[in-house]
Protein backbone atom coordinates (compact mmCIF):
# COMPACT_ATOMS: atom_id res chain seq x y z
CA UNK A 1 0.00 0.00 0.00
CA UNK A 2 1.25 3.46 -0.89
CA UNK A 3 1.27 6.06 1.87
CA UNK A 4 1.41 9.78 2.32
CA UNK A 5 5.02 10.91 1.87
CA UNK A 6 6.72 13.98 3.29
CA UNK A 7 7.98 16.41 0.63
CA UNK A 8 8.98 19.30 2.90
CA UNK A 9 8.87 20.08 6.64
CA UNK A 10 9.04 23.65 7.93
CA UNK A 11 9.33 24.50 11.64
CA UNK A 12 6.81 27.29 12.23
CA UNK A 13 6.86 27.47 16.04
CA UNK A 14 9.29 26.26 18.68
CA UNK A 15 7.14 26.34 21.82
CA UNK A 16 7.74 25.52 25.46
CA UNK A 17 6.71 21.86 25.14
CA UNK A 18 5.78 21.61 21.44
CA UNK A 19 7.39 22.03 18.03
CA UNK A 20 4.89 22.91 15.32
CA UNK A 21 5.61 22.10 11.69
CA UNK A 22 3.95 22.95 8.37
CA UNK A 23 4.37 19.80 6.30
CA UNK A 24 4.01 19.52 2.56
CA UNK A 25 2.91 15.97 1.77
CA UNK A 26 2.26 13.97 -1.37
CA UNK A 27 -0.86 11.80 -1.30
CA UNK A 28 -0.91 8.31 -2.84
CA UNK A 29 -2.78 9.77 -5.85
CA UNK A 30 0.03 12.31 -6.43
CA UNK A 31 -1.79 15.35 -5.08
CA UNK A 32 0.15 17.79 -2.89
CA UNK A 33 -1.38 19.01 0.40
CA UNK A 34 -0.34 21.10 3.40
CA UNK A 35 -0.76 19.37 6.76
CA UNK A 36 -0.10 20.42 10.36
CA UNK A 37 2.27 18.36 12.49
CA UNK A 38 2.72 18.95 16.20
CA UNK A 39 5.64 17.26 17.93
CA UNK A 40 5.35 16.85 21.68
CA UNK A 41 9.06 16.73 22.24
CA UNK A 42 9.39 14.71 25.44
CA UNK A 43 6.31 12.51 25.74
CA UNK A 44 4.56 11.98 29.05
CA UNK A 45 3.56 9.57 31.77
CA UNK A 46 0.39 9.23 33.81
CA UNK A 47 -0.63 7.06 36.74
CA UNK A 48 -3.90 5.66 38.09
CA UNK A 49 -3.53 5.56 41.91
CA UNK A 50 -5.78 2.98 43.60
CA UNK A 51 -6.23 2.87 47.40
CA UNK A 52 -6.52 -0.35 49.39
CA UNK A 53 -10.33 0.03 49.53
CA UNK A 54 -10.53 0.29 45.71
CA UNK A 55 -11.09 4.05 45.51
CA UNK A 56 -9.23 5.91 42.76
CA UNK A 57 -7.30 9.13 43.47
CA UNK A 58 -7.85 11.95 40.97
CA UNK A 59 -6.58 15.53 40.89
CA UNK A 60 -8.66 18.63 40.23
CA UNK A 61 -6.93 21.42 38.38
CA UNK A 62 -7.49 24.36 36.09
CA UNK A 63 -6.70 23.67 32.41
CA UNK A 64 -5.76 26.75 30.46
CA UNK A 65 -6.48 25.08 27.07
CA UNK A 66 -10.07 24.30 28.13
CA UNK A 67 -10.54 27.37 30.34
CA UNK A 68 -12.06 25.22 33.05
CA UNK A 69 -11.33 22.77 35.86
CA UNK A 70 -10.87 19.08 35.11
CA UNK A 71 -10.66 15.85 37.11
CA UNK A 72 -7.69 13.83 35.90
CA UNK A 73 -5.23 11.13 36.87
CA UNK A 74 -1.82 12.56 37.84
CA UNK A 75 0.40 13.09 34.80
CA UNK A 76 3.25 15.12 33.43
CA UNK A 77 5.95 15.48 30.81
CA UNK A 78 9.18 13.55 31.03
CA UNK A 79 12.14 15.53 32.37
CA UNK A 80 14.25 14.45 29.41
CA UNK A 81 14.05 12.44 26.20
CA UNK A 82 15.58 9.44 27.96
CA UNK A 83 13.68 9.45 31.26
CA UNK A 84 11.98 6.13 32.03
CA UNK A 85 8.24 6.84 32.03
CA UNK A 86 7.84 4.74 35.21
CA UNK A 87 10.14 7.18 37.03
CA UNK A 88 8.19 10.11 35.59
CA UNK A 89 4.88 8.55 36.69
CA UNK A 90 6.17 8.00 40.25
CA UNK A 91 7.37 11.60 40.44
CA UNK A 92 4.10 13.09 39.17
CA UNK A 93 2.13 10.86 41.57
CA UNK A 94 4.06 12.15 44.57
CA UNK A 95 4.19 15.80 43.44
CA UNK A 96 0.50 16.09 42.61
CA UNK A 97 -1.11 13.85 45.27
CA UNK A 98 1.50 13.40 47.99
CA UNK A 99 1.19 9.62 47.69
CA UNK A 100 4.19 7.44 47.08
CA UNK A 101 3.72 3.94 45.74
CA UNK A 102 5.60 0.72 46.31
CA UNK A 103 3.93 -0.94 43.35
CA UNK A 104 3.87 0.91 40.04
CA UNK A 105 3.10 -1.36 37.08
CA UNK A 106 2.40 -0.66 33.37
CA UNK A 107 -1.30 -0.44 32.50
CA UNK A 108 -1.64 0.84 28.91
CA UNK A 109 0.18 2.97 26.32
CA UNK A 110 -1.61 5.85 24.64
CA UNK A 111 -1.21 8.17 21.67
CA UNK A 112 -3.42 11.12 22.49
CA UNK A 113 -4.36 12.49 19.06
CA UNK A 114 -2.87 10.66 16.12
CA UNK A 115 -4.28 12.85 13.32
CA UNK A 116 -1.73 15.62 13.89
CA UNK A 117 0.46 14.91 16.94
CA UNK A 118 3.08 12.36 18.04
CA UNK A 119 2.48 12.75 21.79
CA UNK A 120 2.57 9.50 23.76
CA UNK A 121 1.51 8.86 27.34
CA UNK A 122 2.59 5.71 29.14
CA UNK A 123 -0.06 4.98 31.77
CA UNK A 124 0.80 3.12 34.98
CA UNK A 125 -1.20 1.62 37.84
CA UNK A 126 -0.08 2.55 41.37
CA UNK A 127 -1.05 0.44 44.40
CA UNK A 128 0.19 0.19 48.01
CA UNK A 129 -0.03 3.97 48.33
CA UNK A 130 1.78 5.70 51.17
CA UNK A 131 0.38 9.15 52.13
CA UNK A 132 2.74 12.12 52.18
CA UNK A 133 2.92 15.77 51.16
CA UNK A 134 2.14 17.35 47.77
CA UNK A 135 5.05 19.19 46.15
CA UNK A 136 3.46 21.34 43.47
CA UNK A 137 5.35 23.52 41.03
CA UNK A 138 4.51 27.21 40.57
CA UNK A 139 1.83 26.67 37.95
CA UNK A 140 -0.17 24.12 39.88
CA UNK A 141 -2.98 24.48 42.36
CA UNK A 142 -4.31 20.99 42.67
CA UNK A 143 -6.85 19.40 44.96
CA UNK A 144 -7.07 15.66 45.45
CA UNK A 145 -10.05 13.35 45.94
CA UNK A 146 -10.53 9.59 46.25
CA UNK A 147 -13.43 8.42 44.08
CA UNK A 148 -15.56 5.27 44.15
CA UNK A 149 -15.27 3.42 40.82
CA UNK A 150 -19.04 3.46 40.26
CA UNK A 151 -19.09 7.26 40.59
CA UNK A 152 -16.22 7.61 38.11
CA UNK A 153 -18.01 5.46 35.54
CA UNK A 154 -21.12 7.60 36.03
CA UNK A 155 -19.07 10.80 35.52
CA UNK A 156 -17.57 9.42 32.30
CA UNK A 157 -20.87 8.22 30.80
CA UNK A 158 -22.47 11.56 31.74
CA UNK A 159 -19.69 13.40 29.88
CA UNK A 160 -18.38 15.16 32.99
CA UNK A 161 -14.98 13.40 32.91
CA UNK A 162 -13.64 13.69 29.34
CA UNK A 163 -9.84 13.69 29.52
CA UNK A 164 -8.78 10.82 27.28
CA UNK A 165 -5.88 9.49 29.38
CA UNK A 166 -8.13 9.52 32.47
CA UNK A 167 -11.06 7.84 30.71
CA UNK A 168 -8.78 5.19 29.18
CA UNK A 169 -6.98 4.47 32.45
CA UNK A 170 -10.14 4.13 34.54
CA UNK A 171 -11.72 1.74 32.04
CA UNK A 172 -8.50 -0.23 31.56
CA UNK A 173 -8.26 -0.85 35.30
CA UNK A 174 -11.97 -1.58 35.76
CA UNK A 175 -11.99 -4.05 32.84
CA UNK A 176 -8.95 -5.84 34.26
CA UNK A 177 -10.55 -6.11 37.72
CA UNK A 178 -13.84 -7.38 36.29
CA UNK A 179 -12.11 -9.95 34.10
CA UNK A 180 -10.19 -11.26 37.12
CA UNK A 181 -13.44 -11.61 39.09
CA UNK A 182 -15.15 -13.46 36.22
CA UNK B 1 -8.93 29.28 44.01
CA UNK B 2 -6.83 31.52 41.77
CA UNK B 3 -6.05 30.26 38.28
CA UNK B 4 -3.64 30.86 35.48
CA UNK B 5 -4.73 34.01 33.62
CA UNK B 6 -4.05 34.93 30.00
CA UNK B 7 -1.99 38.11 29.60
CA UNK B 8 -1.38 37.94 25.84
CA UNK B 9 -2.22 35.56 22.97
CA UNK B 10 -0.28 35.60 19.72
CA UNK B 11 -1.28 33.52 16.68
CA UNK B 12 1.94 31.92 15.43
CA UNK B 13 0.54 29.45 12.87
CA UNK B 14 -2.75 29.18 11.03
CA UNK B 15 -2.69 25.59 9.84
CA UNK B 16 -5.03 23.44 7.80
CA UNK B 17 -6.95 22.11 10.83
CA UNK B 18 -5.13 23.85 13.74
CA UNK B 19 -4.45 27.34 15.00
CA UNK B 20 -1.30 27.55 17.13
CA UNK B 21 -0.87 30.31 19.69
CA UNK B 22 1.99 31.49 21.89
CA UNK B 23 0.30 32.49 25.13
CA UNK B 24 1.77 34.65 27.86
CA UNK B 25 0.16 33.64 31.14
CA UNK B 26 0.33 34.82 34.73
CA UNK B 27 0.54 32.06 37.34
CA UNK B 28 -1.34 32.30 40.64
CA UNK B 29 1.97 33.28 42.35
CA UNK B 30 2.40 36.22 39.95
CA UNK B 31 5.10 34.67 37.77
CA UNK B 32 4.88 35.13 33.99
CA UNK B 33 5.34 32.12 31.69
CA UNK B 34 5.07 31.32 27.99
CA UNK B 35 2.77 28.43 27.14
CA UNK B 36 1.74 26.73 23.90
CA UNK B 37 -1.93 26.57 22.98
CA UNK B 38 -3.23 24.55 20.03
CA UNK B 39 -6.79 25.15 18.91
CA UNK B 40 -8.40 22.36 16.90
CA UNK B 41 -10.85 24.62 15.17
CA UNK B 42 -13.72 22.30 14.32
CA UNK B 43 -13.66 19.41 16.79
CA UNK B 44 -14.31 15.85 15.71
CA UNK B 45 -16.53 12.82 15.97
CA UNK B 46 -15.75 9.11 16.15
CA UNK B 47 -17.86 5.98 16.11
CA UNK B 48 -17.53 2.43 17.45
CA UNK B 49 -19.29 0.15 14.94
CA UNK B 50 -20.52 -3.13 16.45
CA UNK B 51 -21.82 -5.99 14.28
CA UNK B 52 -24.74 -8.20 15.26
CA UNK B 53 -22.34 -10.96 16.39
CA UNK B 54 -20.54 -8.54 18.74
CA UNK B 55 -17.44 -7.98 16.60
CA UNK B 56 -16.10 -4.43 16.39
CA UNK B 57 -15.18 -2.83 13.06
CA UNK B 58 -11.84 -0.95 12.99
CA UNK B 59 -9.99 0.79 10.18
CA UNK B 60 -6.31 0.39 9.37
CA UNK B 61 -4.59 3.48 8.02
CA UNK B 62 -1.25 5.23 7.76
CA UNK B 63 -0.78 8.06 10.25
CA UNK B 64 1.67 10.69 9.09
CA UNK B 65 2.20 12.06 12.64
CA UNK B 66 3.31 8.61 13.88
CA UNK B 67 4.90 7.47 10.62
CA UNK B 68 3.19 4.12 10.91
CA UNK B 69 -0.09 2.26 10.46
CA UNK B 70 -2.72 2.29 13.20
CA UNK B 71 -5.94 0.43 13.98
CA UNK B 72 -8.62 2.93 14.93
CA UNK B 73 -12.34 3.47 15.14
CA UNK B 74 -13.68 5.57 12.23
CA UNK B 75 -13.39 9.30 12.96
CA UNK B 76 -13.03 12.69 11.37
CA UNK B 77 -13.29 16.44 11.75
CA UNK B 78 -16.63 18.18 11.61
CA UNK B 79 -17.45 19.85 8.28
CA UNK B 80 -18.28 23.11 10.06
CA UNK B 81 -18.35 24.64 13.53
CA UNK B 82 -22.06 23.95 13.79
CA UNK B 83 -22.27 20.40 12.42
CA UNK B 84 -23.96 17.96 14.81
CA UNK B 85 -21.30 15.41 15.78
CA UNK B 86 -23.82 12.56 15.30
CA UNK B 87 -24.11 13.54 11.62
CA UNK B 88 -20.32 13.72 11.37
CA UNK B 89 -19.96 10.28 12.99
CA UNK B 90 -22.48 8.73 10.59
CA UNK B 91 -20.68 10.25 7.59
CA UNK B 92 -17.24 9.05 8.72
CA UNK B 93 -18.62 5.57 9.43
CA UNK B 94 -19.98 5.27 5.91
CA UNK B 95 -17.00 6.88 4.15
CA UNK B 96 -14.35 4.83 5.96
CA UNK B 97 -16.07 1.45 6.36
CA UNK B 98 -18.97 1.43 3.90
CA UNK B 99 -21.37 0.57 6.72
CA UNK B 100 -24.43 2.68 7.37
CA UNK B 101 -26.14 2.45 10.73
CA UNK B 102 -29.77 2.77 11.76
CA UNK B 103 -28.84 3.17 15.41
CA UNK B 104 -26.16 5.70 16.32
CA UNK B 105 -26.20 6.63 20.02
CA UNK B 106 -23.85 8.75 22.19
CA UNK B 107 -21.21 6.71 24.05
CA UNK B 108 -18.67 9.11 25.63
CA UNK B 109 -17.19 12.59 25.14
CA UNK B 110 -13.43 13.05 25.01
CA UNK B 111 -10.84 15.80 25.23
CA UNK B 112 -7.78 14.30 23.61
CA UNK B 113 -4.90 16.19 25.25
CA UNK B 114 -5.92 18.83 27.77
CA UNK B 115 -2.44 20.15 28.66
CA UNK B 116 -2.15 22.19 25.47
CA UNK B 117 -5.12 21.58 23.12
CA UNK B 118 -8.89 22.17 23.09
CA UNK B 119 -9.73 19.34 20.68
CA UNK B 120 -12.88 17.41 21.53
CA UNK B 121 -14.14 14.13 20.07
CA UNK B 122 -17.72 13.03 20.59
CA UNK B 123 -17.75 9.23 20.43
CA UNK B 124 -20.83 7.32 19.29
CA UNK B 125 -21.88 3.68 19.23
CA UNK B 126 -23.24 2.34 15.93
CA UNK B 127 -25.35 -0.83 15.76
CA UNK B 128 -27.69 -2.37 13.16
CA UNK B 129 -24.99 -1.93 10.53
CA UNK B 130 -25.90 -2.14 6.85
CA UNK B 131 -23.00 -3.05 4.51
CA UNK B 132 -22.23 -0.74 1.59
CA UNK B 133 -19.32 0.86 -0.26
CA UNK B 134 -16.39 2.87 1.17
CA UNK B 135 -16.16 6.43 -0.15
CA UNK B 136 -12.64 7.54 0.74
CA UNK B 137 -11.19 10.97 0.14
CA UNK B 138 -7.87 11.48 -1.70
CA UNK B 139 -5.70 11.17 1.38
CA UNK B 140 -7.12 7.90 2.62
CA UNK B 141 -6.22 4.31 1.92
CA UNK B 142 -8.08 2.41 4.54
CA UNK B 143 -8.66 -1.28 5.12
CA UNK B 144 -11.40 -2.57 7.36
CA UNK B 145 -11.54 -5.53 9.74
CA UNK B 146 -14.08 -6.88 12.24
CA UNK B 147 -12.39 -7.78 15.54
CA UNK B 148 -13.46 -10.03 18.41
CA UNK B 149 -13.63 -8.02 21.65
CA UNK B 150 -11.21 -10.34 23.46
CA UNK B 151 -8.60 -9.78 20.74
CA UNK B 152 -9.03 -5.99 20.97
CA UNK B 153 -8.53 -6.05 24.74
CA UNK B 154 -5.39 -8.13 24.23
CA UNK B 155 -4.08 -5.63 21.63
CA UNK B 156 -4.68 -2.72 24.01
CA UNK B 157 -3.04 -4.35 27.06
CA UNK B 158 -0.10 -5.41 24.87
CA UNK B 159 0.35 -1.78 23.74
CA UNK B 160 -0.37 -2.53 20.08
CA UNK B 161 -3.55 -0.42 19.97
CA UNK B 162 -2.72 2.97 21.52
CA UNK B 163 -4.98 5.58 19.93
CA UNK B 164 -6.78 7.21 22.86
CA UNK B 165 -10.22 7.61 21.25
CA UNK B 166 -10.10 3.96 20.14
CA UNK B 167 -8.93 2.65 23.53
CA UNK B 168 -11.56 4.74 25.37
CA UNK B 169 -14.39 3.72 23.05
CA UNK B 170 -13.63 0.00 23.18
CA UNK B 171 -13.44 -0.01 26.98
CA UNK B 172 -16.53 2.20 27.34
CA UNK B 173 -18.57 -0.23 25.26
CA UNK B 174 -17.14 -3.36 26.90
CA UNK B 175 -17.77 -1.96 30.41
CA UNK B 176 -21.36 -1.12 29.51
CA UNK B 177 -21.99 -4.60 28.11
CA UNK B 178 -20.42 -6.29 31.15
CA UNK B 179 -22.42 -4.15 33.58
CA UNK B 180 -25.66 -5.06 31.78
CA UNK B 181 -24.80 -8.76 32.02
CA UNK B 182 -24.02 -8.48 35.76
Structure characterization notes:
The first copy, chain A, is built from three helices and ten strands, in the order βββββββαβββαα. By secondary structure, chain A is of the alpha+beta class. The longest helix of chain A has 18 residues. Chain A starts with a strand and ends with a helix. The mean pLDDT of chain A is 94. At the A-B interface, β1, β2, β3, β8 and α2 of A face β1, β2, β3, β8 and α2 of B.
Outline the secondary-structure elements.
The structure is a homodimer of 182-residue chains.
Chain A: E1 5-14, E2 18-26, E3 32-40, E4 44-49, E5 56-63, E6 68-72, E7 75-77, H1 85-97, E8 100-111, E9 120-130, E10 143-147, H2 149-157, H3 164-181
Parallel strand pairs in A: 4-9
Antiparallel strand pairs in A: 1-2, 2-3, 4-7, 5-6, 5-10, 8-9
Amino acid sequence: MEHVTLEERKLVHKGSILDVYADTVRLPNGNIEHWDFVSHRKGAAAVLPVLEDGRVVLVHQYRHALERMTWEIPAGCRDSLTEDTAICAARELEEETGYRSEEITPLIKLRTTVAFCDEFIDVYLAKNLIPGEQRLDDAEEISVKAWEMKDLLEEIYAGRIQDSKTVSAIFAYQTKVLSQQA
